[in-house]
Input
Amino acid sequence: MAYKKEELYDEKVTEGLMEHYRNSISLLGENPDREGLMKTPERMAKAMQFLTQGYQLDAREVLNGAKFTESYSEMVIVKDIELYSMCEHHMLPFFGKAHVAYIPNGFITGLSKIARVVDIFSRRLQVQERLTHQILDAIQDTLQPQGVAVVIEAQHLCMMMRGVQKQNSVTTTSAFSGQFEDGTTRAEFMKLISSDLMGRR
Output
């Protein structure tokens, strides 16, 4: 077989989480030994490790692994990066898109690494505000560009499923550094992330 995807889980962590999830199911009034729930604690334990794998990864290391000398000094934008994260307040998902740009100052990075940075920080227990700044800081610290811009648009299930139950609400957060703190540069970035240059339908 030329390619094989393999998921590895920490056995001790899996067993500990399974015990807690089994107890939680009982406390909620269900029978963890019921056929449909017998394997649920294991599934939940593995799912939670997958959803929080960002704690085991270093965004700066990822960026440095694909850091190239280049004289290009115009805006580089990767937009519509899908993100899925877990709200640390209610342990419910939030999901949406990240738009990330930077203006190189002698170095560029692989485009996929920008998306990887988004994944690394979103695969943690998060709040959207902190996530936005963590992405910006990692790119700023590693590439030392002339500026970085990050905008995230997300829907939060803690607002949609419980509490105020506003199913159509969208939360937008932004962070800017360097040249993106200038109104003209920032306006160009905002215009580009809101336009459809490829004519997609």
Remarks:
- Helices lie at 11-27, 40-51, 59-64, 111-122, 128-143, 157-160, 183-194.
